[in-house]
Each structure stands twice: as C-alpha cells, then as structure tokens.
Write a structure and sequence with these properties.
By secondary structure, this protein is mainly alpha-helical. It is about 50% helix and about 10% strand. It has a domain of about 70 residues: OB fold (Dihydrolipoamide Acetyltransferase, E2P) (Beta Barrel), CATH 2.40.50. The termini are far apart. About 5% of the residues have low confidence. GO terms for molecular function: chemokine activity.
C-alpha cells in the first residue's frame, strides 16, 4: 500500500512539474549583471563577443565577452566595451577575409597543377626535353 501511495505521489509531482519546465522553454545563457570597471587590457584578450538583448528570461541588455576560460558581461554603453566590440568585429572580418583569399589562392594553384597533370602535351620543360633530337636515351651498361 505504501509503495502504491508513493508511486501516485511521484506521478502527481511529475505531472505538476512538467508544464512549468515546458513553459520556461530552453535554457538561456544570460548576463544578470555587469562586470564593473572592465579595463581595456582585459578586454583586448577576448576571443569573441555576443550582444544580449532583452528577451525571454534575459532582462538586461549586455555584451558577453568570451575568453579562454570564462565569460565576462559588459555594459554596452561603456566606452571600453564599445571599443572592444569594434576591434573584435574588425578582427573577425580580417580573419574571414584572409581565409577566403587563401582558399582562392589554393584553388587557383590546385587548378593550375591539375591542368599540367591532365594535359601531357603541354609545353613544360620535361616534355620539351623528351622530344628533343639531341637527347638520346642510352641503355645502361651492366657489368657481369
């Protein structure tokens, strides 16, 4: 009897708890406050940032800076935060620009090498010497 009562109690608890969890939705990673007095020498080591807007369970506009081991929340109105955002955006653009230009260069090189390999009649130095009349292939002498 006690086991039956315990099972009913657990079922009621789970039934009452599930709609609350479902109503909250997905877990959001929010800044609940600002890190005051963020110095520029700290922010310059940030790897990335994300602007948090007021929505759902996040009720504070903030900028989250991602470092190697931690996340720091900054006030979007702070001058150091604005400066760090500008520099990180420029850094992202530069890295993206370099990666696309490098991939285009590699693509050009690989296409160039394909054309040399696929076309054996191309006028490369190797093919020019094979057909040269002064170049004669002599069999090797073997010592018995």
């Amino acid at each position: 009897m006690k086991l039956w009562l315990f099972a009913c109690l657990v079922a009621c608890f789970i039934g009452a708890w599930m709609p609350v969890v479902h109503a909250q939705g997905a877990f959001e990673d929010c800044c609940l406050g600002y890190q005051h007095r963020i110095k520029w020498n700290v922010l310059r080591h940030a790897r990335n940032y994300h602007q948090q807007e007021v929505s759902g369970s996040c009720n504070l506009r903030a900028v989250r800076f991602y470092f190697r081991q931690k996340v720091v929340c900054g006030n979007p109105e702070d001058m150091n935060v604005k400066r760090a955002m500008r520099i990180l955006t420029a850094r992202k653009r530069l890295v993206h620009w370099k990666s696309t230009s490098d991939s285009q260069t590699e693509r050009k090189k690989s296409n160039h090498m394909k054309s040399k390999v696929e076309n054996p009649n191309s006028t490369s130095m190797r093919n020019a010497t094979l057909g040269h009349p002064r170049m004669v292939m002599m069999p090797r002498k073997t010592n018995n």
